Amino acid sequence: MIITTEAIILKSMKYRDSAKLLTAYTEEFGRCSLIANGARSAKNKYGTALEPMACSSLTFYKKQNKDLHTLSGAEASVRLRNISESFDRMTAGLAMCEIIYASQTHEEQNSEVYQLLKSCLVALNTVEDGAEPSLLVWFQIRYAAILGFGLNPCICPASGETVLAQYRPESEAQQHFLQEISTQEYLVSLADGAPFNEVYARINTGFRMRPATLHALQTLYAATLETLGQHHLTAQQISQLDDFFALYYQFHLDRSLADKTRRFLQSVAAAG
C-alpha cells in the first residue's frame, strides 16, 4: 500500500549508481528502511528532503513482510537551514539522530520519540550559539525517560534524601578556579542516574562526577526547551556528560550507543 507520513531522516548512504538507502524515523511506523531511486541523479526530485536531520513528508510503497520499502515522494515539511550552516548544530543534531538510530528497533512506532526528536531539531535550528551541547544533554535526559529509565539527578537512590551539587560560581574566573582546585566528586548511580549522599557513596559503585558537572546536569534536568539558551556548558562538563550518558545508556540497553559521526567530526575540528 502507498503510505504518506511525517519522518526525520536518521541516515543516508549511497546505493548503486544513483540511489540512496535511507533510515528514517517515521511518525506512523517508527524506524523504517527506504530506497530512493534516482536520489543521486542529475534530475533528483527530492532536493534536501532526504538529507540527515531533515524533517520531511515521505510517500512510499510499504511492502508487507518486507524490511525495505520504495520511496516515491519526499518534501521537506520543516525548514532547518541553520543547522547545516553551523558545525556545532550539525554535530548535536547528528548525535540525536544516531542515538535514535542505535536504540530503536525496526518499525516499532513511538510518537513520543518522534515528537521529542522533532522538537529538539526545531529548537537546534534557532538555539543561541554555544547552547547546542546543553540541548543535546536535555534530549538525552528526556529520551531516557521515554525509554523507561529516567534519571533522578537530585535524589540519593539509597536514602531518598535530596542531594544538590555544592557549586555556585559567581563568575567565569571563579568557575575555572573552582574546577581546578575541587577534589570532591559525586558518585552517580548508573542504575538510577542519581547521586549517592556521602555515606552511601562509600559503599557503592557508579560514575564519578565533578560538582560543576552534576550541577549542570541538575540544572538541565529542571530546564525547559524554551530556556536552554541560557545554559552554556564548559568543555570539561561536556566531556564528562558525554562519558556519563554513554555509560548510562549502555547500562540500561546493554549495548553501546556511541555517536561515531559526531565524535569523528569533533576530531576533525580539533585537528584543524
Task: Please explain how this structure is put together.
The chain has 272 residues and is α+β, with helices and mostly antiparallel strands. It folds into 2 domains: 2-79, Beta Barrel (OB fold (Dihydrolipoamide Acetyltransferase, E2P)), CATH 2.40.50; 103-271, Recombination protein O, C-terminal domain (de novo design (two linked rop proteins), Up-down Bundle). It is built from 9 helices and 8 strands. The chain has helices at 81-84, 87-103, 111-126, 132-147, 172-181, 198-201, 211-222, 235-253, 260-271, and strands spanning 2-15, 19-26, 30-36, 55-61, 68-78, 186-189, 194-195, 207-209. The strands form 2 sheets. Strands 1-2-3-5-4 form a 5-stranded mixed β-barrel. Strands 7-6-8 form a 3-stranded antiparallel β-sheet. The model has no long low-confidence stretch (mean pLDDT 89).
Fold blueprint:
Layout: E1 2-15, E2 19-26, E3 30-36, E4 55-61, E5 68-78, H1 81-84, H2 87-103, H3 111-126, H4 132-147, H5 172-181, E6 186-189, E7 194-195, H6 198-201, E8 207-209, H7 211-222, H8 235-253, H9 260-271
Parallel strand pairs: 3-5
Antiparallel strand pairs: 1-2, 1-4, 2-3, 4-5, 6-7, 6-8
Helix pairs in contact: 2-3, 2-4, 2-9, 3-4, 4-8, 7-8
Residues in helices, as a percent range: 40-55%
Number of domains: 2
The CATH homologous superfamily of the largest domain is called Recombination protein O, C-terminal domain
**Radius of gyration, CA atoms, in whole angstroms:** 20 Å
CA-CA gap between termini: 49 Å
What characteristic shape results from the CA principal axes?
Answer: elongated
The number of helices is: 9
Mean pLDDT: 89
Strand residues, percent: 15-25%
Based on helices, strands and strand pairing, what is the structural class? alpha+beta
